[in-house]
Amino acid sequence: MHSVNRALKLKLKNELCYIRTLSTVSDIRIYEVGPRDGLQNESKFVPTDVKVELIHKLAAAGIKNIESASFVSPKWVKQMSDGTDVMKTIKRSPGVNYPVLIPNLKGYETAMKCNIEEVAIFPAGSEGFSQKNLNCSVEEGLKRFKEVAVQAIKDGLRVRGYISCVVGCPYDGPIHPKGIAKITEELFAMGCYEVSLGDTIGVGTAGSVQRLMREVLNVAKPENLALHFHDTYGQGLSNLLAGLEFGIKTVDSSISGLGGCPYARGATGNLATEDLVYFLYGLGVNTDIDLVKLIEAGRYISNFLGKMTESRVNRALSDRFKNHSDIVKIAACTVN
């Protein structure tokens, strides 16, 4: 009898957990980082016209937030050296947000010539990564980004914050959630409307994500946070589900699973946007994103780069379907 009761309690607990998960994902905002974070680590230079076409294809698929360029020094990230040309060439679709990554005031001043509306700043969650990626300490990096945030808000722009290496660092090892919560708090104090928590090297698991969320939610509301997972160990979607259970509403992803970091050896690409959208449709979330067009965008950039897509959904579906609704039925396991 006791074993039966325990089994019933466990079943009830699992069902309640599932119901809670479904109730928190009714409206998910997808923040596409492929044209910037996805391409920055590619050794083959991607010409401006290809980057622009990729951005156009993503917008045509229904993506509403597309991080399009970076204004870091071309000395350090040559792939992003044409940020000005990209931003001046894209044809902007109504209702689509085209944010850019900004490292300092110099980069900000250049970006301001390109009719931008949103900037992203990116302190590190560890001292080791901050030194490698920004050539300064975490504290110095925050001071630098505060200057950008203050000026951007003064100019009427939105500011988004990223924190890299939120659960693990290639130089410092595991990262304590309390330190990430402190940086998160400082970014909101600067005026960031949202902070994205990035597992830059993809070492996170559902357990480490849950521990991180419990700590960060002491200083922030879930609707003001985003999740940014790299899929190095194949944990991207399970980590995402763990985060969604805390009420997170925004998820970063990259078309075709592109990504990596010049200063995080071994880190692979981001959670693939195709996989994310398919996953969300399976949960009953209507993202208003056309998977047929999204898969086409993924094939477009993968073909240019001369490599196979990292999106499992893209590989599985390829060009088998012409109708988006047919793919949604598969994702939802809908029976007619």
UniProtKB/TrEMBL annotation:
GO terms, biological process: ketone body biosynthetic process; L-leucine catabolic process
Domain Pyruvate carboxyltransferase: 28-295
Signal sequence range: none
Keyword Metal-binding annotated: yes
Gene3D superfamilies: Aldolase class I
This enzyme's EC code(s): 4.1.3.4
UniProt keywords, alphabetically: Lyase, Metal-binding
One matching Pfam family: HMGL-like
Catalytic activity line of the entry: (3S)-3-hydroxy-3-methylglutaryl-CoA = acetoacetate + acetyl-CoA
Record-given protein name: hydroxymethylglutaryl-CoA lyase
